[in-house]
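Researcher: We plan to redesign the surface later, but first we want a full-length starting point. Tokens attached.
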């Protein structure tokens, strides 16, 4: 994919300049060369798209197996309020770290790398949010302590991403999950108070979660 991007850029930007296409539009040889270049660009674009799609597919397939650990792991060591990176979060970080390592090793263009990471963030948010909703439908999962643990795990992940300079990108794609987790991590006393407009908007975003909490007496 990296080589194809470089070749595509060369054909698009450098070949016309080197051959002077704009000054010799009627030259039969250049017309033939231009047609061949356009065909090559089409093939390269297909290669890039296919490789990108396959990369996203296999990375998200791998992430799917470890993401639930972010909901299940306890980042608080026994008898301590200090955060530690639990196995569930570490597994997710390792996949992202290896992805970044490969992107750097093979010198993938920064725009392609950013787009790939954006897909991974989008998938992670959607997968975790859906799992959170499914877990809650069975009862017993929506508890304040669980919300605090998930919030801490999510913060560990987002802090690591922030360290890469991608904090804004991650915040955008993890917004829905973060909103739901904030509600789950809100103490019961706060939920029983009159709801301000911001909380009402948050409840509207997480209707299944809020309905479950209300139905079970805000446990």
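Model: Full-length starting sequence:
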């Amino acid at each position: 994919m990296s080589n194809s991007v470089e070749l595509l850029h060369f054909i698009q930007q450098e070949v016309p300049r080197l051959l002077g296409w704009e000054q010799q539009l009627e030259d039969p040889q250049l017309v033939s060369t231009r047609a061949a270049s356009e065909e090559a660009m089409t093939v390269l674009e297909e290669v890039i798209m296919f490789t990108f799609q396959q990369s996203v597919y296999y990375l998200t397939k791998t992430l799917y197996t470890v993401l639930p650990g972010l909901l299940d792991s306890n980042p608080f060591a026994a008898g301590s309020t200090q955060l530690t990176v639990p196995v569930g979060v570490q597994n997710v970080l390792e996949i992202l770290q290896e992805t970044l390592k490969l992107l750097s090793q093979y010198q993938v263009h920064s725009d392609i790398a950013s787009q790939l990471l954006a897909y991974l963030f989008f998938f992670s948010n959607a997968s975790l949010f859906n799992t959170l909703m499914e877990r809650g439908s069975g009862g017993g999962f929506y508890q304040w302590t669980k919300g605090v643990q998930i919030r801490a795990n999510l913060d560990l992940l987002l802090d690591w991403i922030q360290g890469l300079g991608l904090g804004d990108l991650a915040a955008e794609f993890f917004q829905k999950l973060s909103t739901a987790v904030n509600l789950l991590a809100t103490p019961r006393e706060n939920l029983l108070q009159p709801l301000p407009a911001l909380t009402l908007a948050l409840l509207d975003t997480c209707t299944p979660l809020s309905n479950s909490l209300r139905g079970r007496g805000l446990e």
